[in-house]
Amino acid sequence: MLDESRRKEILEHGSLTKPWGGEPMLGNWYTEEEIEAVVSAIRSAMSSMDGFGFLSGAIAEFEQKFAEYCGTQYAVSITSAGVGLDMAVIALDLEPGDEVISPAINFKGAHYSILGYGGTLVLCEADPRTLNADPSDVEKRITPRTRAILATHMNGLSAPMDDYLEIAERHPHPKYGPPKVIGDAARSCGGGYKGGKIGKKGWMTVFSFHTMKLMTTLGEGGMLTTDDPQLVQRLRGLRQWGMEMPGDLETDSDKPGTRDPRWGTNYKMTTIQAAVGLVQLRRLDDMIAPRVKLARERTEMLKDIPELTLPYEPPECDHAYYLYNILVPREWAGQKRDRLMKILKEDYGVNTVVANAPTYQQGYPFIADHTIGQRLPISEEIGARLFCPPMHPQMPEEDNEYICAAIAEAVEQIKVGE
Ligand SMILES: Cc1ncc(COP(=O)(O)O)c(C=O)c1O
For the chain, how many structural domains are there in total? Predict the structure, then answer.
């Protein structure tokens, strides 16, 4: 708790030690180990017989270590989570009219993939406490045409995957059985659920190693996890011209029986990214721990401000705190929330983001045009009440305290103006 005199003192005499993006451009940090991994990967490619390989060496090792981390049978490395979401939808082999349920409060990627690869996007509401798809609303929207539930693990917190799986079991598709449950864990790599890691539950999970994420592979990169041997064959085929190439990945493409007759292309990550990914994965838990510490200290400092609804940590989840979600009161939705964000930025240099409003309100005509007539009032209200202040594992405690003081002061200013 920050009392008024402490708040004033911090704001009068303090400032941020450095600017923080609302969603910082580098979500973690690199050490000499990553730099050495890059140099050494380049050095080991200096042979005309080896070059950077295809899917050998560091890539195979990264996949194996990532699968072990998530407790899955398989992991398939790819160029980005955007591509991973496309692959997930392609692998569903949708027929015209097939529906995929996905929460409106979301990053646009899942919805682009569903709409881009032949699905009918059925939006569902989010639970305001977690921002994750609300299972009871998912159940309301399931029909005999539902082929999948594509849920995002929002902002570091696992979605309730077991609830979706149970719902899917209760509503099997007449031809394909229970709808597939797919997780988008782009923002939640390293988060936990029911004693395990995100990535284990459901048909498959998509991860991102984009520059802003919890672990990164030089700006872009992604991974898919699954326990399904047929699906992994399909995913590997999509990633590399129909070639499955498990195990020793270098030469299997020449062996008979390893070619998938279906369409594929090139979605491979580079050896250098994988070499960096191996180091980042080893460091992942240690990079999440400071986020959790900062988030809990932040909650402690803000918890007595009745106007703010702070992040909820369900007991079965280990939050990775990619972002720290705050909701303002209903009556402040929209304009007053916007004013609060403006005060934070202009008066105190504290950047914030709204992650996220419903995708159809984010200014992407492709999604808006394909969801005409779908309106999600709970999600719209969340989108108008939400703001996320900066969160980064290297943020000093004094910056966290300054941000909290600025938030408390901005709330006071909004109240005075009421
Ligand atoms: C929830 C979510 N899904 C997917 C993506 C896309 O990830 P990538 O940049 O690796 O394509 C992002 C990226 O911001 C994201 O936040």
Answer: 2
